[in-house]
Amino acid sequence: MRGVHLGIGVAAGVTAGVLGVGVLAAVGGEEPRTAPVPTATGTGTPPAPQGPTPIPPAPYLHLGWGHPPDVKAVMDATGVTAFTLAFVLSGGGCDVTWDGRRPLDSAPDAAAVKAIRDAGGQVHISVGGWSGRKLGPRCRTARAYADAVQKVVDAYRPDVLDFDIENDDELRVAAVQDRILNGMKHLKTANPDLRLVITTSTGKKGLDKWGERLIERAAELRTPVDNYTIMPFNFGGSTDMYADTVAAAESFKALLQRVHGWDDATAWRNVGLSGMNGVSDGKETTTPRTWTRIRDWASFRGIGRFSFWSVNRDRPCAGPADGSSCSETAQEPWEFTRITAGF
Prior knowledge:
Elements: H1 23-27, E1 60-62, H2 71-78, E2 82-90, E3 96-98, H3 107-118, E4 122-128, H4 142-156, E5 160-164, H5 168-171, H6 174-190, E6 195-201, H7 209-220, E7 227-231, H8 241-260, H9 264-269, E8 271-276, E9 278-279, E10 285-286, H10 288-301, E11 305-309, H11 335-341
Parallel strand pairs: 1-2, 2-4, 4-5, 5-6, 6-7, 7-8, 8-11
Antiparallel strand pairs: 2-3, 9-10
Helix pairs in contact: 4-6, 6-7, 7-8, 8-10, 10-11
């Protein structure tokens, strides 16, 4: 539910409340988890890779929400080599914290980063999300915004910074959009090897006018974006998450082509997908089989980033459904992460 505000940065309307207990029974007869080869929208010879190097698949992990798992255990069980740690928020004004509550050097966050790095993995960090106090409207200038986020870079030297621009205070205010986009330019200048991602919400038919403005304005300001990711869920209802995800991605790819003049292969390489495992707040269900189909289609198309919200939820429900710690759909522990790692 997008109206819930928990004081923390939960992606695309995720809540920590109970989402209903009838879903497991409804999906208990899920079809075998084998994915067919892409059809209709994915036939023939895949396009030759163009554009930026793909970003390693890095599902979101929120250490301040629900019952977060041990990162090393998940890496060992799934083969995943990167996580997107969420979320950097305002602790008041333009001061940066984890979830608006924990200092940057807090023990669980520092320990998770060390564990990922010790295992040879990559650390991606997300700034923003849906809930909580955002830096965009609270930092008065682009330089102040960049200086705030630079503290995160200095503390953890992430491989990727993900700017999750979906909250109304950031997405639907032109001046704040521009502040973030110009701040990203400062960050790239100071950290030329740091890869920058924009993540935003989408409908089945593509972005709304504010989402389109964000993409257009990034091009106009020459913001150095390494990947543009959409979140294809919470569509307002879906009976076919595969078809609706493909439709949203194709619309988004066309928007990138219109804005940048890219050919098909280059546009796809700049597209990212970040889904939601299991039951979304809109009661849409993505099963492991559906997620595998989406992954295979995305791989065929040559997209540049593949992720999901969230590892916290990537396990079956042992008791009453809890949307912060299980997916509410029939699955094996860490199954969505394992599928994602195979991208």
